[in-house]
Amino acid sequence: MSENRLQEAISTLKASGVRITPQRHAVLEYLLNSMVHPTADDIYKALEGKFPNMSVATVYNNLRVLREVGLVRELTYGDSSSRFDCNTSDHYHIICNSCGKIVDFHYPSLDEVEALAEQVTGFKVSHHRMELYGECEECQKEEKNKQKSG
Amino acid sequence: MSENRLQEAISTLKASGVRITPQRHAVLEYLLNSMVHPTADDIYKALEGKFPNMSVATVYNNLRVLREVGLVRELTYGDSSSRFDCNTSDHYHIICNSCGKIVDFHYPSLDEVEALAEQVTGFKVSHHRMELYGECEECQKEEKNKQKSG
DNA sequence: TAAACTATTTATAAAGATTATAATTTAAGA
DNA sequence: TCTTAAATTATAATCTTTATAAATAGTTTA
């Protein structure tokens, strides 16, 4: 089925000088055939039949490698702490890639996106969430100063 | 300054039958005066001067109570695992509130939102991320079946 | 094909965020 | 003031992810 994508992915890995181990091959193949955006633990459990001695660390290592090569995207939910916000009105957040600062940002509600999503996916949408990422003014200034002095 | 908001919030708590303890009062006050969307640990550290014996659990308990009453929103980043996705093209995700299933969803890039955000906040935006939440078709059906049989 | 080099895997422990438990304390109404 | 249920504290446990060091195994080169 996705044999082509698998071969392409392996070529990409080889071109990046990444070794093709059986475990790595299996993680990649599993991800390519999966439609459900599995967690690291999902993958670990799915492969433990074939690789009874495989360590969780191996799954994480391979996911990191695949991400670095650009073959896999990570949807982070578990890499930092929850944030708490007293502003309970609808708004979005813009987050600085450098210093982590979170700033509120208002924009008219994207009802249109919700409506289209309902049509396409059959979901009954309750709400949505959006975060913008970038570099805040302060960090931009610091960046410029570094370039000057450096 | 935000003395009014504090009094309002306390009224809301009392109306919900929630006790006003010194620790709870402090957490609430800190959140109302904070503009940076603090983590639970931020709050814990900020209050340990005033309450040297306070437990982290107290902070978490109070944040949960404040959330349940609707005074606080939680931006979850740390409540579940990362998800991994082989589809590295731009797309959004729609997530089922009941079963947790994640489905890809395509929509024209929201360049307009990014442009406005740059103007308003001064950030240099690199990318954005959006998730829609709702109930998938399967879970909607199950819900209907329950209502019939129940 | 064998040897060598180094990336990868494994096993284990550690870190960090959050929740659970049980005993003690305390807010708020009678 | 007394009472009672709720809240707090201290502690341990859970869960995800990362770090470390020793063992293993891909890949290149002779």
Automatic annotation (TrEMBL), chains A, B:
Single annotated GO MF: transcription cis-regulatory region binding
Keywords: Cytoplasm, DNA-binding, Iron, Manganese, Metal-binding, Repressor, Transcription, Transcription regulation, Zinc
Pfam families registered for this protein in UniProt: FUR
One example of a Gene Ontology biological process annotation: negative regulation of DNA-templated transcription
Cofactor: Mn(2+); Fe(2+); Zn(2+)
The keyword Zinc appears for this protein: yes
Signal peptide limits: none
Subcellular location: Cytoplasm
Binding site residues for Fe cation: H128
Domain of life: Bacteria
Cofactor annotation comment: Binds 1 Mn(2+) or Fe(2+) ion per subunit. Binds 1 zinc ion per subunit.
Keyword ATP-binding found: no
Primary location recorded for the protein, binned into one broad class: cytoplasm
Family annotation (InterPro entries): FUR, Fur_C, WH-like_DNA-bd_sf, WH_DNA-bd_sf
Binding locations of Zn(2+): C96, C99, C136, C139
GO cellular component: cytoplasm
Family assignment from sequence similarity: Belongs to the Fur family.
The protein's name in its UniProt record: Fur family transcriptional regulator, peroxide stress response regulator
Organism: Virgibacillus chiguensis
